[in-house]
Amino acid sequence: MKQALKIIGIMSFAVFLFVAIVLTKFKNHVDDEYDNDHPKTQNIEELKAWAQKEIVQDYCERYAKVKNINNETNQQRELSRVENSRFAYVPQKIRNVIEENDLPDSYADELYHYVDDEINKCQ
Known about the structure:
Elements: H1 2-37, H2 44-67, H3 72-100, H4 105-122
């Protein structure tokens, strides 16, 4: 009986340890994603580099995929979705980053115009 309780105790500890490790890994993964989406900087050039990587490349990849669709109706529908994300998602993402870093509104305007110009190059 003592042996069975000892085995149950060891197994319970092992399961607890495994769950703790998995949850820690998941938390670190979520934190890393948040850091990628919300850079902490006061430098406009670093924000432009972040925007180039996180916003412009994503938009250009989605735009290129849509342009490769053969069915014209599907292509127009998907192109509309990509364009809508440009005018709804992009300004909000920029605004969030500017507000989280307590930067002036002029940074938001400059960053938005930079992103807009870069996206126009994709098209």
